[in-house]
Amino acid sequence: MAADIALYKANAVPVGVDQAPHLEFTREVVRSFNHRFKTDVLIEPQMKATQTPKVLGVDGKHKMSKSLDNHIELAATAEETSKRVMQMVTDPQRKTRKDPGNPDVCNVFSMHKIFSSSAEVQMINTECRQAGIGCVDCKKIFARNLNQHLEPFRARRDELAKDPTFVGDVLEDGRKRASTIARETILQVKQAIGLPEFSSR
Length: 201
Ligand code: SF4
Hints:
The protein is mostly helical. The chain is built from 7 helices and 2 strands, in the order H-E-H-E-H-H-H-H-H. The mean pLDDT is 94. Iron/sulfur cluster binds next to helix 4, helix 5 and helix 6. Residues 90-91, 94, 101, 103, 106, 108-109, 124, 128, 133, 135, 138-139 line the site of iron/sulfur cluster (SF4).
C-alpha cells in the first residue's frame, strides 16, 4: 500500500478511519526514505477523511465491507437496496414496536444522519425515544432517501455500461498517465539511492 501511494506521488489519500494507521505508516516510510537519502523525491501523503470516516454495515457491528457481506451494494436496484435496508440491525434493546428506542446506539439512525434531512433526523431522534415511530417506518424513510441519493449514480452507471469502448478508453488513458508518473518516480528513486543504472526497468 505504501508503495502504491508513493509510486504515484499522491499528496492526499481518501481513506476511512480504519485505514489511518496504514497511511501513517506510509508517511513514516516516505519521511524515512527522504531523510536517509537526503532527497524530497517522495511525497508525504495527507489523510483525506470525509465527514463520515466510518460507516458500519447492515449488521451494525463491523465496518461496511463486501467481504463481510454486510454491505449495501451501490450497483443494486432501488428494490434490492430497500430490501437490504430492511435487514439492518437496530437498537437491540427495542424488542417490540411499543418499546421506546435509543437512536444513539442504532446504526439506522447513524445512516439517517448522512442521508436524511435535518428535519427528518430531528423527528426520528424524538419519535424513536417515545415509540412514536417504528423501526420499519424508520427504515422505509432511510431507504427512500438513500435511493434518491443513489439515483444519479445508477443512471450514470447504466449510461456507461452501454458504452464499454468509452470506459476502456478512459481506463487506458489513466493507465498511461499513471505509468508515466511511476516510471519517473522509479528513476528518481534510483538516482537518489545512487544506483548506477538509471533505467526505470
Ligand atoms: S426507530 Fe429508527 S432510530 Fe429508532 S431504533 Fe428503530 S431504526 Fe433505530
